[in-house]
Amino acid sequence: MPDRAIDTPVYVMKAELFKALGHPVRIRALELLRDGDRPVSTLLTEIGIEASHLSQHLAVLRRAGVVAKSRQGNTVTYTLVDDSLATMLDAARTFLLGSHGRTREALGSDGQAR
């Protein structure tokens, strides 16, 4: 059986990655993890959702290969698998802030399209 990663076009793999990132809870978790590994208890406090819901979102990110988990005793800790994910989050922020600025500029100070 052929290796799926080898046979899958990169644009398809990108679409699958973006699909996995397509929820605000997952993006928030990644933003928190970009600053370093976090135990689930900290992620729960920072994100403020039910443990079962967070677990489902983290599982999606794990399946996508974006985060990894480790366990020490009763503590489960998550980490980003690659620093380039933080760079991608920064690029998205830069794009969105620029887009917001262009929209405001296009609307002008009166809120009407020019």
TrEMBL record:
InterPro entries: ArsR-like_HTH, HTH_ArsR_DNA-bd_dom, Metal_resp_trans_reg, WH-like_DNA-bd_sf, WH_DNA-bd_sf
MF terms (GO), sorted A to Z: DNA binding; DNA-binding transcription factor activity
Keyword DNA-binding set for record: yes
Cross-referenced Pfam families: HTH_5
Identification of the protein by name: Transcriptional regulator, ArsR family
The keyword Ion transport appears for this protein: no
SMART domains in the record: HTH_ARSR (SM00418)
Highest taxon of source: Bacteria
Keywords linked to the UniProt accession: DNA-binding, Transcription, Transcription regulation
Every HTH arsR-type domain range: 6-100
Signal peptide residue numbers: none
